[in-house]
Write a structure and sequence with these properties.
- With 243 residues, this protein is mainly alpha-helical.
- It has a single domain, classed as Fic-like fold.
- 58% of the residues lie in helices and 2% in strands.
- It is built from 10 helices and 2 strands, in the order H-H-H-H-H-E-E-H-H-H-H-H.
- Strands 1-2 form a two-stranded antiparallel ribbon.
- A hairpin with a 3-residue loop joins strand 1 and strand 2.
- Helix 4 runs antiparallel to helix 5 and helix 7 runs antiparallel to helix 8.
- The chain starts with a helix and ends in a 7-residue tail after the last helix.
Length: 243
């Protein structure tokens, strides 16, 4: 088993505080949600994780969905760890979306279709067209089939991420689901995962936008994130001090 996955599972099961699992939960939820516009700070995310309470920050307004989606990300991360070694399927991807979006205001909208593919057309950013709803099932099936034919390394995972985001199969939450899938697939194939830093949001978006012409931007952003997470892993995977 991947040593990183083994440690994450061990710490999760034993409720260890302050370890790699604890730090990754906060780091991943904060950055991934922040990329999508969450106003929660890193410290507020930590406070929610560690105390299950919310720490206000002056008079800044916080959307209740930001808090719910932070809690949901913790749950989705746990599920992702549980199925990390399972072959990636559309069912896993849909379950991640359901876990991320349940209980939010979006779930009350019947057109949102939490845990299922989108019903309405959507765009990425400014006028970037995505796959039409009727075509999503076929394109997702084709993407999955092609992905599983390959020997999986970092480049294949990044390439899958781009095509997944281009399809944009869900009404919302595609970025967070996509980044959880990247983390899962790195664990599944004994690779160091990527946690994209929200400070690199513009580089990440540029990488997705320009990937067809120049894949190096997205690859470099992900590999830089991998290097940063490797530093955290190296700290926690040090051998214990002998008595």
């Amino acid at each position: 088993m991947n040593e990183i996955l083994k440690l994450l599972r061990h710490e999760k099961e034993h409720h260890r505080k302050g370890g790699l699992y604890h730090q990754t939960q906060i780091l991943f939820a904060y950055n991934s949600n922040r990329i999508e516009g969450s106003r929660l700070t890193h410290e507020q995310t930590r406070f929610i994780y560690e105390t299950n309470t919310f720490l206000p920050d002056g008079n800044a307004a916080i959307h209740t969905d930001d808090v719910i989606e932070t809690l949901n990300h913790f749950t989705a991360f746990d599920y992702m760890i549980d199925v990390a070694e399972d072959p990636l399927t559309e069912e896993i991807i849909k379950k991640l979306h359901y876990l991320l979006k349940r209980g939010t205001s979006d779930e009350r909208d019947p057109n949102f279709n939490v845990g299922e593919y989108k019903k309405l057309p959507n765009m990425i950013g400014e006028m970037v067209y995505t796959t039409e709803p009727a075509e999503v099932p076929a394109q997702m099936n084709s993407l999955m089939t092609q992905y599983h034919k390959q020997k999986i390394q970092e480049r294949e995972i990044i390439d899958f991420h781009y095509h997944f985001e281009k399809i944009h199969p869900f009404q919302d939450g595609n970025g967070r689901v996509g980044r959880l899938v990247m983390f899962k697939e790195c664990l599944a194939h004994n690779l160091v995962p990527f946690v994209i830093d929200s400070d690199h949001k513009l580089f990440y978006y540029r990488g997705l936008r320009e990937y067809p012409q120049e894949p190096g931007y997205l690859v470099d952003t992900c590999l830089s994130a991998q290097d940063n997470y490797q530093k955290l892993i190296s700290y926690f995977l040090q051998p214990p001090i002998s008595p």
